[in-house]
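Our preliminary data section would be incomplete without showing what the modeling component actually yields. Below, a chain of 138 amino acids is followed by its predicted structure, encoded as tokens that our downstream tools consume directly.
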Amino acid sequence: MLKLTYTEGSFYLEYLTQSLEEWVAQRVILALRVGQSLCVEPSTASFLLPVDLPGVDLLTDEVKRDDSEIIALCVCDHEYVEVSLKGYWLSDGSEDVVGVFVTTMNDSHNSNSFASRAEFCLHKLWQEAQACASVMSE
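Predicted structure:
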């Protein structure tokens, strides 16, 4: 499972071994216990990765081979590829841009091995992109 935590200025991507259903159920229970509103709705999340990161070509090949509707890759320009994911947006229901997006590539159309590889690969690529961005900003 992948979890993207959105804040006003950025987002953070995590790879979790817990199932999407278990994680959402725990989040609902937590919201009930603390008396907080929780809105869960189908959504799409997108982010950019540098095209020249090692592993982007491998991910592109895997996505083409799997023919999944959960993940899509689109080359934006000569520097970036856009990763689009279908999943669920969890927030307090307000119009703020703060919330959590969760997705899993393990559905009836995908094998566990592809799902795990793709999720893990996306997480590693995102980490590498963050490391490259922090080096460049220094």
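The radius of gyration is 16 Å. The chain is about 40% helix and 30% strand. Preliminary results of this kind motivate Aim 1 of the renewal.
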